[in-house]
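Weekly sync, protein design subgroup
Attendees: M.S., D.O., the rotation student, P.L. (late)

Item 1: inverse folding check
M.S. brought a backbone from last month's batch and wanted to see whether the design step gives back something sensible before we order anything. D.O. pointed out we never logged the input encoding, so this time it goes straight into the notes. Structure tokens as presented (162 positions):
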């Protein structure tokens, strides 16, 4: 389900970066980059409202940036830019979380919410981001969580090893 081209489009590596594939786990994959040091798990939505630009690829990632002392940061590239002033929500199983966003990028508002989202991911089968797009249409990006925990753990371990 997750193609290497999608991941490359989501997190492009330059010639100066050395990207290592850590594995594909269900609907998720894990990668690491050398400079800057970063490890991440990533998935593309199985359900999303298609953007008009075929080069635009929405995704959900969990990243670790050891040099910045950032661990398990939740990030979404939305299928469309969010309408300012409208809420953006992540639903994971029965848990709901508010997200902050800028344009078509969204994050958990703080590290505590990142942790709560990760705990919910481990117990659920699906995650959905919903809100209102800038053009007034719905944002409803759905992600399968099969393999998410394994990919997240692989990324975390890769960055812990240095």
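Designed sequence read out in the meeting:
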């Amino acid at each position: 389900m997750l193609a290497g081209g999608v991941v490359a489009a989501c997190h492009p590596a330059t010639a100066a970066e050395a990207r290592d594939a850590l594995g594909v786990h269900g609907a998720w994959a894990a990668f690491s980059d050398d400079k800057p040091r970063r490890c991440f798990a990533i998935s593309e939505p199985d359900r999303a409202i298609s953007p008009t630009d075929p080069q635009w690829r929405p995704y959900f990632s969990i990243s670790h940036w050891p040099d910045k002392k950032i661990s398990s940061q939740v990030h979404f590239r939305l299928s469309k830019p969010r309408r300012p002033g409208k809420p953006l929500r992540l639903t994971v199983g029965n848990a709901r979380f508010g997200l902050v966003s800028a344009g078509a990028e969204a994050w958990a508002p703080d590290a505590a919410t990142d942790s709560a989202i990760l705990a919910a991911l481990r117990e659920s089968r699906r995650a959905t981001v919903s809100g209102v797009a800038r053009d007034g249409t719905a944002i409803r990006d759905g992600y399968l969580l099969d393999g998410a925990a394994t990919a997240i753990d692989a990324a975390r371990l890769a960055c812990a090893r240095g």
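Discussion: The longest helix spans residues 148-161. The domain at 4-161 is CATH 2.60.40.1880 (Immunoglobulin-like).
Action: P.L. to compare against the previous round before Friday.
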